[in-house]
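Lab meeting, item 3. Inverse folding demo.
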């Protein structure tokens, strides 16, 4: 193996985002964000531009009987989010521009 080969990444951009950026960067502020928002059981949460969903499972844990919707325009990011996450309540491919007024 040449010196540069072990630095090559394999996988899709959403998978790599989930594997490397979420643990290193996104999860740090996701916990702080959900603590500040403080959703309660029964609340409804809309995670706009949810990506692979660093915030979404934290919201699901808090609202228990409520509803959490993850919204993103990128199907690849949403697909990564849905893998292995049966408690994720709902995902929607859409843009925040199309939310009702």
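The presenter then showed the designed sequence:
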């Amino acid at each position: 193996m040449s010196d540069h080969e072990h630095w090559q990444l394999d996988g899709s951009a959403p998978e790599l985002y989930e594997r490397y950026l979420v643990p290193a960067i996104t999860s740090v502020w996701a916990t702080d964000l959900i603590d500040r928002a403080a959703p309660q059981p029964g609340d409804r949460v809309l995670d706009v531009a949810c990506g692979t969903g660093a915030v979404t499972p934290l919201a699901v844990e808090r609202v228990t009987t409520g509803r959490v919707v993850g919204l993103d325009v990128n199907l690849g990011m949403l697909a990564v989010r849905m893998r292995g996450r049966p408690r994720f309540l709902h995902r929607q491919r859409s843009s925040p521009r199309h939310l009702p007024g």
